[in-house]
Amino acid sequence: MKKLIERLLLFFVGMPLIVASVFLFPQKNYLLLNIELLIFAGFAVAEMRNLLAKKHQTYPLPILLAIGLAIPLASALYAVFGLPYRLITFAIAIAAVLTLFVEFIYSFSGSFDRSLDRIATGFAVLLYPGYLAMYLSVMTKWDDAGVILSTFLVMVFGCDSIAWLFGVLFGKGNRGLVPASPNKSLAGFAGGYAGAFAVGYAAAALFPNVFSGSLWKMAVLAGLTATASIVGDIIESIMKRSAGIKDSGNLIPGRGGVLDSIDSILLAAPVFYILGDFLYGL
Question: Residue 263 in contact with residue 256, Cβ under 8 Å?
Answer without folding.
Answer: no
